[in-house]
Write a structure and sequence with these properties.
Elements: H1 2-38, H2 42-47, E1 56-66, E2 77-79, E3 82-84, H3 86-91, E4 93-95, E5 98-103, E6 110-119, H4 128-134, E7 138-142, E8 148-152, H5 156-187, H6 193-202, H7 209-222, H8 228-251, H9 256-264, H10 269-280, H11 282-297, H12 301-306, H13 314-324, H14 329-358
Antiparallel strand pairs: 1-6, 2-3, 4-5, 5-6, 7-8
Helix pairs in contact: 1-14, 4-14, 5-8, 5-11, 5-13, 6-8, 8-11, 11-14, 13-14
Amino acid sequence: MAAKSSSRKKLSSILVEVTLILISLVWILPTLGVLITSVRSSKDIFSSGWWTILPHRTWVEVNEIRLGESVDVDGPMTIGKVTATFEEFRQGVEDGDKRYLWFGNKRSRLIKVEELQWQWFYDGYTRENYENVLVGREIRFQDASGAEIVRQGSNLSGAFLNSIAVTIPATIIPILIAAFAAYAFAWMNFPGRKVFFIIVVALLVVPLQIALIPILQDYTRLGLTGSYLAIWLAHTGFGLPLAVYLLFNYIGTLPRETLEAAFIDGASHFTIFFRLILPLSVPALASFAIFQFLWVWNDYLVALVFLGDQNRVLTYALAAMVGEKGQDWHLLTAGAFISMILPLTVFFALQRYFVRGLMAGSVKG
């Protein structure tokens, strides 16, 4: 029986590990594809997928054949051991490990000879895609057919800085306010404490979309529309209910004896808050910081309503890129990865606190 139980546990562990690996691959592969595509040349992106950087057999041009004027391009043509029509050569005619491919129209009379060879390393990496989307200058590149395409750069560097200017204050301000409120709800007695807390929790289910128009009308009367202060206050209001609830669950589980000893020593609420509560609540603060930072950084609707085009953020600039450069995958993937760099950095920097903060208050005793 003990052997059977051990084998079942081992099989269960293997199944869990395999499942986690598969889930990780499902999440990682798209990100890896975006990263690889963003550093490939435009011509390669238009002609092949990102996975072709892996070792594989591919057609490599080894020769060119220029047909003479005596060859009738409207009928069957014989090249080496292959006889085919113009349409068939346009599609590519294979002869073992060789392929004959017509380049251009009939007037070009040019056939490229390709051989099937192993490609072990990809050497077409470039940083031009990032340079083109980060600045606003005119850019030029070639598509798969060799035609030159001219586009105007997107100047994402300015939008990136605007997103930082929006996101950092919109993350810090609600954390500070919510920490004060959570401490008050957890450790201070005042009239209406339970009622106010119920109202805060109830606000979690209220869609923020219903508040956009009334807030925008108030901002218009106050002259705040299009300013950073407007969006800071909006994100603070929308993020406070979750922040208060999350921090309350954690602060409420802190040892009562520690706070009572501080009170006996004559410490005030402000002293206790800054010297005990904040240092002990780092996991919960970091957990909410990840939530709030990612939500504000990826926000499009609130930034569109309260900032508009005056201080364009990264999500707004990326949406504009999709409309202007929808076929230019090398530019879109570079812009997408630029928008992912900072959120990934924040998450990996704070992820050790993430689970501890989410589990706050879930276990008693």
